[in-house]
């Protein structure tokens, strides 16, 4: 099997390291990139967060919740991206176990939030929902690569369409509307850059489809950078105009 992998990897200039490679029965399971993969006795494949991954995540959450340096609102703000990121990373895993529902962690956080004299139970619950945002998951729904396709085969059309399926909601609709191309530069989306949503009118509370476009992360940065440059130029021109008018007024006096 290792020989076959070497043959396949040679096309991309890759070689399997025997020291770092382990052959194991699929029914015994193995850990890889924070997941635990295993084939159950009924023949069904299962993927869950690995023990080490869950422990590391729990340690981060516990450190923030038990910290005496932050108030409940700050703790909620710090917990939200950590919890959302962890749940997003594992959204194709089997996450219905009580441990992965994070009930124990959220219950502990609620108790800590509720101790603050400035917060009532309702406010504590609102902060808890903010600290532990829900992320929908769907077991084994990862989009498989078609046939012998490779990210290095130059087929940007296929890969941009496939990567677009990893998004949902408004982003997914915009990608289909824009034929999986960036509205700013016109290039296809690839896995090398994230897809960003840009608010045309600058109002981040306006989520109407007509006010949004899907762009590359770098293009999004360039758009806002260009706007700042225009604002600086306009501000400079206005100041020069005021200075000239004042200068003319001084001469008139």
From TrEMBL:
InterPro entries: DNA/RNA_pol_sf, HNH_nuc, Mat_intron_G2, Znf_C2H2_type. Residues 182-204 form the C2H2-type domain. It comes from the Bacteria. Keywords: Nucleotidyltransferase, RNA-directed DNA polymerase, Transferase. PROSITE patterns: ZINC_FINGER_C2H2_1. GO terms for molecular function: RNA-directed DNA polymerase activity. Transmembrane segments: none annotated. This is Reverse transcriptase homolog. It comes from Nostoc commune NIES-4072. The lineage of its organism: Bacteria, Bacillati, Cyanobacteriota, Cyanophyceae, Nostocales.
């Amino acid at each position: 099997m290792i020989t076959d992998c070497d043959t396949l990897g040679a096309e991309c200039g890759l070689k399997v390291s025997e020291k770092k490679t382990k052959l194991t029965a699929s029914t015994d399971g193995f850990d890889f990139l924070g997941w635990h993969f295993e084939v159950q006795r009924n023949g069904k494949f299962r993927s869950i967060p690995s023990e080490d991954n869950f422990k590391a995540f729990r340690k981060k959450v516990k450190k923030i919740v038990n910290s005496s340096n932050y108030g409940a609102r700050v703790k909620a703000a710090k917990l939200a991206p950590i919890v959302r990121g962890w749940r997003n990373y594992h959204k194709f895993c089997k996450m219905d176990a009580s441990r992965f529902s994070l009930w124990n962690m959220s219950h502990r956080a609620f108790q800590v939030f509720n101790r603050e004299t400035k917060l009532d139970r309702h406010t504590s619950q609102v902060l808890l929902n903010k600290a532990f945002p829900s992320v929908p998951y769907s077991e084994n729904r990862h989009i498989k690569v078609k046939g012998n396709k490779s990210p290095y085969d130059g087929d940007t059309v296929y890969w941009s369409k496939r990567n677009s399926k990893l998004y949902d909601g408004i982003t997914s609709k915009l990608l289909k509307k824009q034929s999986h191309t960036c509205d700013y530069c016109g290039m296809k989306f690839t896995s090398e850059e994230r897809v960003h949503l840009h608010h045309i009118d600058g109002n981040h509370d306006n989520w109407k489809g007509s006010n949004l476009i899907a762009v590359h992360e770098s293009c999004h940065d360039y758009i806002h950078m260009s706007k700042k440059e225009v604002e600086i130029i306009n501000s400079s021109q206005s100041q020069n105009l005021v200075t000239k008018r004042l200068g003319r007024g001084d001469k008139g006096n």
